[in-house]
Structure formats: C-alpha cells, structure tokens
Target: 4-coumarate--CoA ligase-like 4
Amino acid sequence: MAYPQRSLSVDPRSGFCKSNSTFYSKRNPLSLPPNPSLDVTTFISSQTHGGTTAFIDAATGHRLSFTDLWRAVDRVADCLYHEVGIRRGDVVLILSPNSIYIPVVCLSVMSLGAVVTTANTLNTAGEISKQIADCNPTLAFTTRQLALKLAAAAISVVLTEDEDGEEEPARGLRVVGILSEMMKKEPSGKRVRDRVNKEDTAMMLYSSGTTGPSKGVISSHGNLTAHAARYLSDKSKRDEIILCTVPMSHTFGLLGYVMSTVALGKTVVVLRRFELHDMLDAVDKYKATTLVMAPPVLVAMLNGADLIKDKYDLSSLRTVTCGGAPLSKEVTVGLLEKYPSVDIHQGYALTESNGGGANTVFVVVEESTRRYGTAGTLTSDVEARIVDPNTGRVMGVNQTGELWLKGPSISKGYFRNEEATNETINVEGWLKTGDLCYIDEDGFLFVVDRLKELIKYKGYQVPPAELEALLITHPDILDAAVIPFPDKEAGQYPMAYVVRMSESNLSEQQIIDFISKQVAPYKKIRKVAFINSIPKTVSGKTLRKDLIKLATSKL
Model:
C-alpha cells in the first residue's frame, strides 16, 4: 500500500490519519502522465493491450474492433476539424440512445480540444432547450427521430444513422454530415490542430438534479485522464465481456464504458435501451461475464430469479456491478442465494468526482468478513473526510457525517455557476458530496443517505434509504420510495410511495405495520400512496423531489 504523503502517520487498516483527520486510499497510487499538453483521447489510445473487439451492438451483433475504432476516431476528428470547423473549446452535444458509435464521437471531439456534452433522450424538447441555452453547443450528433427535440434550437447536426425511408429532420436544423460517411472518409493529411492542455475542459455532463436544478459539471482532460488511469492501476481481468445496460448519456455509462474499457482493451456489449429480457438474452447470446446496472434492475433479477434461470443461460456471468444508489443487505443476500456463482460489487461516485469515490471492484472479500451495504474502499489517489454538517468538525473512524472527497479526478466546478461551485468545492479542492456517510475500521465506505433528503421528525433524523431497503423486502412490493411529508406538529414524517406486485392487494395499513415492527418509533411510516412506478434518474437514483411535489400538490 502507498499513500500520497508518506511522512504522515496513517493507520494501515483504516487508511485514517489522525494528524489531519483524513482518510487515504489503500490502493496503488495512480501513474499520471507528466506532459501537461496531453488530451485524454491521446492518453487512452497510447495504452497497450491485447483486446481485439471493442464494442458489440447487442441488437444486431455488429462489432467494432479496436483497430476500426481508432481509424474511425481519426477520420471523424478530421471531418469535424476541416469540414465542420470544430475548434478547441467548442461544445458538441450528443443526443442519442446507446450506440457503439458514441465512443467514436466522444473520442473524436475531445481529441480536438472540443467539449462533449450529452442529453438524456427521455428529456423533453423544453428540457433539452434549457441545456442548449446554458452550454450553447456548436454542433449536435443525433438520430433523425430525436432531431425533432432540437428543432427550436436551430442547431447544426450530424446524423448518427442513415436508414432508408426515415423522415427528414425537423425544419430549422442544418444537417452537416452523416456519421457513417465521416467514418469512411480518408483523412486529409492536414494534422495541424489546436494544442490541448490537461486543464482544458473535455466534458460537461449535467448532474442528475435529484435535489435541485441540473447543472453542467466541468471536467478537464486531466480529470478524465485520472479516471482512465485509475482503471489501469487496478489489476482486473482483461478477458471480460461487459454488458452495459446504463445510458451512455450519464457519467456511469459514458466514463466507465466508453473510456475506461477502451483503455483496458475490454469488450463492451451495448444495449441501445434497457429492457430486462433483452439484457438477459444478451448475457446468454454473447456470454457476458460482467453486468453493470442500477439497483432497481437487481431487485427485478431477484424477484424473478427462478423464471429467469429457467429461460436464460447465465453461466458465463461472474460479476454484477451496481451503482447509482445504495444496495441493501437484504437484496445483496437474496442475490447471492439466487445467483451463487456471481459476485456482487458496488461502487460510489458522483458526476462531480469523475469516477473518484469508492468501489468493491477488484477487491476479494471473504464471506466471513463481507461488508454488506458498503460501497467499497476508496479508489486510487482519493482522499476523504467525514465532516459534521452542523459544526464543520472533521471526524474519524465509524463516525457519520458528510463525505468530502479530494483527488485528481475531482471536477473543476459548475459551468457559469460560481455560486454553486463555491458551495460545493472549497478553496482547498474538497468536494462536498452532500452524502451522509461513515468509513469503518477497515476503510470501507458506507453511504447512509443524501444529506438534503434526511427526514426531520421531531428533531430526529430519519434516512429514507433505510426504510426503502426494508420496504422492498416485502414479497408484495416491487419498488418503493420514502419522502418527507410536512406536518405542523412533527415538522416532517416519513411517507412511502409503493409499487405493488401485479394482482397484490397490499393495503396502506399492512405496509405501516410491516415497517413499525422493524424500526424505532420515530422512523415509522405514517402515510402510504400507491404508484405505478417510482421516478428515477437514468442512473437509478430516486427523484424524491418529484414525489415531494406530487405529495404536496394538494396541500
């Protein structure tokens, strides 16, 4: 094990240093390139590996080799520079379902020093217009169908598909290219491009907005290089076939499965859009070894385990990696019982940390010492502090407070939002995550809940995630979310939104009684509403603000 500051006295078990109240990663330090004028695309392309197939389209079986990938990146970058006029600092929007060609676009754009931003395909035209107004992209890559959502912006577009018989793009859009044609053009040979510095912005992803308006998170080439280097520093198996079920418009999919896997030489099977049985069929068909998903998908796999194993051959599956929200002990234990040959890994990161945080990936944990519910140990070169949100006091092992993170992948801040940047990242570079956490005596991070989402009942703090974890253990409950409901006497009390299993007649009182038997009196659920589905972000985080708005709309 190695620490950034070897002069410090760091507990080798927990990674905690008493002299400065800081936790240090127990993993190998990152090997970062010394050259300050290095774009992240060049860094990734310079890595040596023995991989052959980079991406597979799960629906069509079409494959993109690493050789074809880098040839396409070079050709598309050449077209963007010489034909479209994209320059360093220009913002390029990607509005597309998952595709094996998104990596081509991202790596091409960043190689020019231009900035990648993405929009969720489920967003409305109005929501996308707000993002466009904020970041002012020069160009958009999109499909013919999704181009309708860009009509009001009057933006130039490159179409990512050219199927016959498709309708014409909406009026107001200027089509300046077809991606497949760009990938076929021989480079012009004119290699003069703008010099890219590691401090230049490479990517601007918009935060999920679970507790407030979405903001553009600024990530530099240095931030993303550190993210890729983190994967390279971990000793993982290079023969993995990873099935990506999460949207590439989100940091979970874009950074983890567009960039890091390319650097490692792994194969990624891409689902255009998530559907449980399509995912399981792809595992069977392509013999996937690793699944990446959000907690609700794991719950669905647990609830339907017997039928799933009868219909699909999942024998190739070795690892399931989960992120986006805490995974309860009950769900983890259930999954290990139903899928005994599969390791369940968890991770913790934010858009603002560019993959920096904690994970259990590549950590062998014996059953006797397994930490259920942990997000894992700190990732390489990440420092952490646990801070009392009320007093600002920095705390130690097994003490709960707000998690602060620091490291080379931490974002530069929010685009054109100095106030939000100063509130989130202090002058010393510490990212205030807004998550209530603790780190135990062995250096494992546990996420208790979102600090802003704690329910204040008569002075007591109630973590919604704890109650949600209990609710989904009920055999008649498919999914659930808990929110604060305003009350004159108590201030707030826990209210549950519940998705019942089909044909279930589970009542409000039965749910209240079910929880009452398992928690302290102040944590009891006092109100229940039934709903068809819980609103979530693309990464699986519950949009409690939407449920709070729904619950209080009639007050």
User: Anything to note?
Assistant: Residues 66-84 form the longest helix (19 residues).
